[in-house]
């Protein structure tokens, strides 16, 4: 019997001098210094009697084979390794090699049989080491066959196969070390390099949602698989922006479920995306004065979509062909840029269900006014959209034009994926590696660097778009800096970082980017060394790293999309995420996760393809899916139960944490923001709830304590109140909310006056810093030191912000959501120059 041993160890020796020079910064996870070199790996495993016998690891850069490792396992029957032993060995060896040489692995390739024998290896590589794992199937060539390439991998020795895997791995990455995006035949988006990349399994997805959501998804998935249903999504672009992020995640998860779900994009045409972006801006009400969606532009869009449909999607086996001819059973047009596909799909197969999803904030008030650019643009779109069976909207009633039949309208929020590169938890070592990459980009663009941990910084992550509130971010930061200077706290102020991805269908990106830089150069020259404005390439992990270490996260978008970034910011602090409300101790709202999003689409697919009529009548699709499956909503508790739980939790906080988190009055079902110290102010009770007839009657006596779920519903209700009061004379640009104060809005609606009064009292309690011993009295630096939850940064604003709304004025406030992260939103007129007057002091 052979004992376990390393038959060939890594032998490469790098520059010790250079390694020692960089090690101090590396050990403290600093972002200074050169980026780490990228490595690639290949592995192979030789099996004997269904057990791993030998493991080989080959390491290379883009040019050379650098190092090799081989390990022979104990062949004694009772000591044969299981899949965990093999995975542990590979993960440990790669981690040690990376830390020893101060280099990081970008990707690793393996034969498919290794991925099958070690089903958790790929997800561990991704989760623990931030390595992109790729699995190759034997006999399937990567590009073209070589006449000398053995068809059977077992014809190669184990070391040869590991080296071949490492070479294959390199070919999947572009110059920026990101996997190359692949759009295949008929415009099919080959997510994760045609499913070769494996970053998550069903075991990884299950903990991201509650038990009943998981059961509901599997219920509908089983039905769809049994009937071999094909689902086809259509959108304009395969990368960049929220729609693409959601579809990559959905296709990835559907693949794990075994659902036939595909995603198609059109062939781009020069000039088309300038037109579609202009139309997008018109519908949002942020276009240039006098800009319209002309007849010529309408004809250009129509011809573009007709060409793509007939050339690609109506060809043999295309997704728009009739289901009996191999086409999709359900068509989902996931982009307002492509409404012409709806009548095409209906003409080919009249009985096939078609869904249209509107993900933009349509100015329904202007759409309903004849003669406006919005009215003209929507009229063209609605002429095509009206043929759809279901109209899915972002969950705000005002985003849906009045001529859309209410029975067709269903609500579905934007979602994010907790397992992808944008949101997964990374080691500080990996975060620092991406921080160095970011600083290299800053050097290349002559922008200020972020030298974390020496620098603190405030961040807004968003595309460079007219509706992302970037001017407000700059004006707010300038005022913030003035306050620090007045208080003598400007020795080393936090920097401001504005960054985001681009997208090929967003020609405004470069324009807004240039305008932002010119504004800083001309209006804020004294701050130009403190403000970093960067357009980042398609690297989710860089954004992840930047958000993870930010002192403050801002989101000043004046149109749709801001709630996803709020969710992602909250998600970054695990301690906060676990304690910010009673519900967050057990789950985050399933509705904003990939699995929750899949539940909505699988429910619609199962029902509509079974020829069942669906009339949402402005309900949340997630709720309808659970009800149809006969499963209750997770984490539904009575208000009395929540008070008892919070009381117990509050006592534990006092005992263990010195009352650092929050105080929970017995008549308040969910914690308020941090109360002032020394009992300076009394807690504010939540007003009594009234029944909301739009929500299910089975839930109206209970409150679902999922913070994002409450957030969406509260936003919808509060927006409606303010629009009812003010929409006739000015434009509400954002929403007034406090993340931790929304429990009452889920299944009951506060009377309008109670909402106004409640938020006014909350704002009054938090805003005047001098009334609670704020920075003016005790020094701004003491705010976060004295208290650990709620408003980590105090603020001062108008004496009566909500009262000022009634008079047509405007203002912002900062809603604190934790130790380092806060969300900043506002309300008021779109054209009011005072709406960025934020006074924020640390």
From TrEMBL:
InterPro entries: Trehalose_Metab_GTase (IPR052078), TreT_GT1 (IPR049438). GO terms for molecular function: glycosyltransferase activity. Pfam families: TreT_GT1. SUPFAM superfamilies: UDP-Glycosyltransferase/glycogen phosphorylase. Residues 234-396 form the Trehalose synthase N-terminal domain. Keywords: Glycosyltransferase, Transferase. The keyword Glycosyltransferase applies. Belongs to the glycosyltransferase group 1 family. Glycosyltransferase 4 subfamily. This is Trehalose phosphorylase. The lineage of its organism: Eukaryota, Fungi, Dikarya, Ascomycota, Pezizomycotina.
């Amino acid at each position: 019997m052979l004992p376990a041993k390393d038959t060939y160890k890594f032998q490469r020796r790098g520059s010790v001098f250079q390694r020692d020079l960089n090690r101090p910064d590396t050990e403290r996870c600093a972002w200074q210094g050169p980026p780490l070199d990228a490595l690639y790996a290949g592995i192979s495993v030789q099996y004997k009697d269904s057990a791993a016998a030998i493991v080989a690891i080959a390491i290379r850069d883009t040019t050379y084979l650098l190092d090799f490792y081989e390990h022979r396992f104990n062949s004694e029957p009772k000591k044969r390794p299981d899949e965990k032993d093999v995975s542990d060995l590979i993960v440990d060896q790669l981690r040690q090699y990376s830390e020893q040489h101060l280099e990081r692995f970008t990707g690793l390739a393996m034969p498919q049989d290794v991925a099958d024998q070690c089903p958790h290896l790929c997800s561990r590589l991704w989760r623990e080491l931030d390595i992109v794992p790729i699995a190759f199937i034997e006999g399937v060539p990567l590009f073209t066959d070589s006449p000398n390439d053995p068809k059977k991998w077992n014809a190669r020795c184990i070391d040869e196969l590991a080296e071949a895997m490492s070479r294959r791995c390199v070919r999947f990455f572009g110059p920026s070390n990101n996997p190359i995006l692949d759009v295949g035949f008929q415009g099919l988006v080959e997510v994760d390099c045609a499913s070769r990349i494996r970053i998550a399994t069903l075991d990884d997805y299950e903990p991201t949602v509650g038990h009943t959501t998981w059961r509901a998804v599997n219920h509908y998935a089983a039905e769809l698989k049994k009937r071999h249903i094909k689902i086809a999504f259509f959108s304009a672009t395969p990368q960049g922006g929220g729609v693409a992020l959601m579809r990559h995640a959905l296709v990835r998860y559907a693949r794990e479920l075994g659902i036939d779900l595909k995603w198609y994009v059109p062939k781009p045409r020069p000039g088309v995306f300038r037109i579609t972006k202009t139309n997008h801006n018109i519908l949002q009400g942020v276009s240039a004065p006098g800009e319209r969606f002309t007849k010529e532009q309408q004809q250009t869009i129509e011809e573009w979509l007709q060409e793509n449909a007939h050339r690609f999607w109506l060809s043999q086996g295309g997704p728009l062909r009739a289901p009996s001819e191999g086409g999709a059973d359900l068509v989902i047009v996931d982009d307002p840029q492509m409404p012409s596909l709806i009548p095409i799909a209906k003409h080919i197969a009249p009985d096939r269900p078609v869904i249209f999803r509107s993900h933009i904030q349509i100015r329904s008030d202007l759409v309903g006014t004849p003669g406006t650019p919005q009215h003209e643009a929507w009229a063209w779109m609605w002429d095509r959209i009206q043929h759809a069976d279901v109209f899915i909207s972002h969950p705000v009633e005002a985003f849906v034009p009045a001529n859309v039949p209410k029975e067709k309208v269903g609500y579905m929020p934007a979602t994010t994926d907790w397992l992808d590169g944008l949101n997964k938890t990374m080691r500080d070592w990996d975060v620092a590696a991406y921080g160095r990459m970011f600083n290299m980009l800053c050097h290349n663009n002559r922008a200020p660097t972020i030298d974390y941990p020496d620098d603190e910084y405030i961040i807004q992550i968003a595309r460079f778009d007219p509706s992302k509130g970037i001017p407000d971010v700059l004006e707010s930061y300038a005022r913030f800096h003035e306050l620090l200077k007045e208080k003598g706290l400007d020795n080393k102020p936090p920097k401001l970082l504005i960054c985001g991805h681009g997208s090929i269908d967003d020609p405004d990106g470069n324009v807004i980017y240039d305008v932002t830089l010119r504004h800083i150069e001309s209006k804020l020259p004294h701050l130009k060394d403190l403000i970093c404005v960067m357009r980042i390439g398609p690297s989710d992990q860089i954004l992840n790293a930047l958000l993870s270490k930010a002192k403050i996260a801002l989101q000043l978008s004046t149109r749709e999309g801001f709630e996803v970034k709020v969710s992602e910011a909250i998600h970054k602090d695990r301690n906060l995420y676990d304690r910010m409300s009673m519900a967050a101790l057990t789950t985050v709202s399933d509705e904003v996760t990939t699995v929750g999003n899949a539940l909505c689409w699988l429910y619609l697919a199962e029902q509509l393809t079974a020829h069942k009529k669906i009339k949402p009548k402005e309900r949340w699709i997630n709720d309808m899916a659970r009800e149809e499956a006969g499963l209750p909503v997770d984490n539904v508790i009575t208000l009395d139960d929540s008070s008892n739980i919070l009381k117990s939790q509050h006592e534990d906080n006092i005992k263990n944490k010195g009352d650092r988190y929050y105080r929970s009055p017995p008549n308040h079902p969910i914690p308020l923001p941090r109360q002032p110290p020394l009992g300076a102010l009394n807690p504010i009770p939540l007003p009594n709830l009234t029944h909301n007839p739009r929500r299910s009657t089975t839930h109206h006596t209970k409150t679902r304590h999922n913070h994002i779920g409450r957030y969406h519903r509260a936003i919808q209700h509060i927006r409606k109140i303010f629009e009812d009061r003010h929409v006739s004379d000015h434009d509400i640009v954002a929403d007034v909310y406090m993340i931790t104060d929304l429990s009452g809005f889920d299944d009951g609606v506060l009377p309008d006056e109670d909402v106004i009064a409640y938020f006014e009292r909350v704002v009054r309690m938090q805003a005047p810093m001098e009334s609670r011993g704020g920075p003016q009295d005790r020094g701004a630096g003491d705010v976060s030191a004295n208290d650990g939850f709620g408003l980590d940064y105090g603020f001062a604003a108008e004496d009566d912000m909500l009262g000022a709304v009634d008079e047509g004025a405007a203002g912002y406030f900062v809603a604190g959501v934790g130790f380092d992260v806060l969300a900043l939103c506002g309300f008021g007129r779109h054209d009011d120059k005072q709406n960025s007057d934020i006074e924020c002091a640390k």
